[in-house]
């Protein structure tokens, strides 16, 4: 038997916000958060020293710049950036992404700076 209260409609959640590069927590899984974000433009080069980072593109197209070559991720595709690998997400068009990371992971990893934001819960 399923628990319908736990169903998350990704499209409905994405319609609730418009801010770019602002992660919204929509679910929890063990010690992980499932987050949504809308992105456009270039983020900052950063690493997550203690965790991998999963990017799933819901709509649009995301380029994940890596020092040894770019990875392009389209709708319905995902890519995992291994822990400690420096990366820089870039989107030429507005792109909706779903991320899975340990609870409390900062969006800018070890880089810090003005774009650093904690994820906000989305009802």
From TrEMBL:
The record's section on CDD domains has:
cupin_YdbB-like
Looking at the record, the residues that make up the Cupin type-2 domain are: 40-96
Which PANTHER family is this protein grouped with?
16.7 KDA PROTEIN IN WHIE LOCUS
Its protein name is Cupin
- Annotated source species: Actinacidiphila bryophytorum
Q: What is the lineage of its organism?
A: Bacteria, Bacillati, Actinomycetota, Actinomycetes, Kitasatosporales
């Amino acid at each position: 038997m399923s628990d319908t209260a736990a169903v998350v409609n990704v499209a409905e959640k994405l319609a609730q916000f418009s801010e770019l590069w602002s992660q919204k927590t929509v679910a929890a899984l063990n010690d992980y958060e499932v987050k949504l974000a809308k992105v456009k433009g270039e983020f900052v080069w950063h690493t997550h020293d203690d965790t991998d980072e999963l990017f799933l593109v819901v709509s649009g197209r995301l380029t994940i710049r890596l020092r040894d070559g770019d990875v392009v991720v389209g709708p319905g595709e995902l890519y995992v950036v291994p822990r400690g690998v420096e990366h820089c997400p870039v989107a030429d068009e507005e792109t909706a992404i779903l991320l899975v990371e340990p609870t409390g992971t900062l969006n800018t990893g070890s880089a810090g700076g003005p774009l650093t934001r904690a994820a906000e819960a989305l009802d």
